[in-house]
Design goal:
Blueprint (H helix, E strand, L loop, with lengths): L1 E6 L9 E6 L8 H9 L3 H7 L10 E4 L9 E6 L8 H17 L4 E4 L11 H15 L18 E6 L5 H26 L7 H15 L2 E5 L1 H6 L3 H7 L7 E7 L8 E6 L1 E5 L19 H16 L4 E11 L11 E3 L5 E3 L7 H12 L6 E6 L3 H7 L5 E5 L2 H14 L3 E3 L5 H4 L8 E2 L7 H10 L6 E5 L5 E2 L9 E2 L4 H9 L5
Parallel strand pairs: 1-6, 2-4, 2-5, 5-6, 9-11, 9-14, 10-11, 13-17, 14-18, 15-16
Antiparallel strand pairs: 3-4, 7-8, 8-11, 12-13, 15-18, 19-20
Length: about 500
């Protein structure tokens, strides 16, 4: 879809559909919406007075100008209550409007920037939020279906702004958002693909494709490569997998050691049976999403490269299946991670922390200023924070924690700080090794984070994204299936990185 920025009045836009907005409770439209209302002889006011439109968030009113202006139809999207208005309401209002436009068969759509007028949001931030809501709401994954749901393809989306002083900020926001959305789509597509398609090999191929397109350095390590790195924990999980494992290393500004280095690590279990500690059959198909952390890292690296951020950003994605065959690792095994730490295997279904352990050790090779890992690690995180609400955040660094919370609030990919108390370490003490890979049924989210902490010696944050990586039902701009959680959060964090 073509994205265009135009200076002028929305009522004169060359589009078949134009979008304006109103807050809940407004009875007399003002600003751009007021200008359209005047051009239509008070039709928007009549819509409100007749009780057909209230301005609540998610509501969209439809008007047909009948030649009064160039557009065939006018959509009025509700912004909700003005006192609660924020960037997330912009996304939701934009999503509702574009879905209605698509439903009505629109091909060329023009919109004002929701929130940049009377709400006084910065034009750039409001534009970015509007485009995120618009473009992510239009995302569709059809997979292998031959009979696809017929939806009108919107050919162009024009952003119309009358104030010439805002045009530069809007143009910049368009280019930024293009890159971010491209990264989110990478993550959503990978997580939505079936596990016989999104294999570790496929993950490596996508990483190579991104690297080739955007000038990144990339290594896709195999079993022999991982053995050379002494990654005993990662290889233990991979032992039972028929599909070859791949350990992906992507580097943006890889040789620029003069730049601040941030390492992103994503759990890449492309299918999780639980191994010998096998899961129940019900719901096991959902375990194709257990590589959402790795998918988010690949998507973020694409966005980082497109934006050419002035940072040295490293993406690590240890990928493998967790299967149960004659070679699979077992409960009671003791394995050695790449830092020499020995691990007693309590459960082979605690495999994510095993592969992350070696990745976190590998991250130290870059002498990073910060390392952030993302993983669909525990069901306990969902119990603690709920489904599709927030990711659990653990961090050894106060500043890093605060920056991630702030980025999460801006993007609405929210994270909630959880404690790294020493009490959790007691549950993973082992009589036969340095550490256990599971603390049992209780305290699962805390003990898993404490396990990972044992493999870090730098400012570090762990995001447990188990409850936010996938939607069972569609929401405003996240259809049922993969959400792509983490890409927008990480890009926002990296764009606002300050070395001092």
């Amino acid at each position: 879809m073509d994205l265009v920025v135009r200076q002028g009045s929305i009522q004169a836009a060359a589009a078949d559909t134009i979008i304006v907005n109103l807050f809940k409770g407004v009875t007399i439209p003002a600003g751009a919406s007021g200008a359209v209302d005047q051009a239509l002889g008070g039709a928007i006011g009549e819509l409100i007075a007749g009780g057909d439109f209230s301005g609540k968030l998610g509501e969209v009113g439809v008007l047909y100008p009948r030649g009064a202006i160039a557009a065939r139809r006018v959509l009025v999207t509700g912004l909700g209550e003005q006192e609660k208005f924020d960037l997330e309401q912009v996304r939701k209002a934009a999503a509702a409007a574009i879905k209605k436009a698509q439903e009505l068969g629109a091909r060329r759509v023009a919109s004002i920037v929701h929130g940049a007028g009377i709400a006084r949001l910065p034009a750039g931030l409001a534009t970015q939020a509007m485009l995120e809501g618009t473009l992510l709401a239009l995302y569709q994954f059809d997979g292998a279906r031959h009979e696809r749901e017929e939806k009108t393809e919107i050919a162009s989306f024009s952003i119309v702004e009358c104030d010439d002083n805002k045009i530069e900020a809007i143009n910049q926001a368009v280019e930024i958002t293009r890159s971010i959305i491209a990264g989110v789509i990478v993550a959503r597509d990978l997580v939505n693909e079936p596990p016989n398609v999104a294999t570790p090999t496929r993950m490596g191929e996508i990483a190579k494709q991104i690297a080739k397109e955007h000038g990144l350095n990339v290594v896709v390590g195999d079993r022999a490569w991982a053995a050379g790195q002494k990654m005993g924990a990662y290889l233990a999980v991979a032992r039972g997998a028929g599909e070859p494992p791949t350990f992906i290393v992507m580097e943006h500004n890889g040789r620029r050691e003069d730049m601040d280095t941030i390492v992103l690590v994503g759990k890449g279990i492309t299918f999780d049976t639980g191994g010998i500690s096998i899961k129940k059959a019900d719901g096991m198909g959902e375990m194709k999403t257990d590589m959402a952390g790795a998918a988010a890292v690949l998507g973020t690296m694409k966005a980082v490269a497109m934006l050419d951020l002035p940072l040295r950003v490293i993406g690590l994605a240890p990928c493998t299946e967790n299967m149960a065959d004659a070679h699979a690792y077992r409960p009671a095994d003791v394995v050695t991670a790449s830092n020499g730490k020995t691990i007693e295997v309590i459960s082979t279904d605690a495999e994510g922390r095993m592969i992350l352990a070696d990745a976190l050790v590998f991250a130290n090779n870059y002498r990073p200023k910060a390392v952030i890992d993302l993983a669909t690690l525990t069901g306990a995180a969902i119990v603690a924070l709920g489904q599709n609400v927030a990711a659990g955040l653990f961090s050894t660094d106060d500043w890093l924690r605060e920056q991630l919370v702030t980025a999460g609030a801006t993007t609405h990919e929210r994270v909630w700080p959880l404690p790294l108390w020493d009490d959790y370490h007691e549950a993973i003490k082992s009589d036969v090794a340095d550490i256990k890979n599971s603390g049992g049924q209780y305290g699962g989210v805390g003990t898993s984070a404490m396990f990972l902490k044992a493999f870090t010696n730098y400012p570090w944050a762990h995001l447990d994204i188990a409850g936010v990586a996938n939607n069972k039902k569609g929401k405003a701009y996240t259809p049922a299936g993969a959400t792509g959680f983490g890409v927008r959060l990480l890009v926002e964090f990296l764009r606002n990185w300050r070395s001092d």
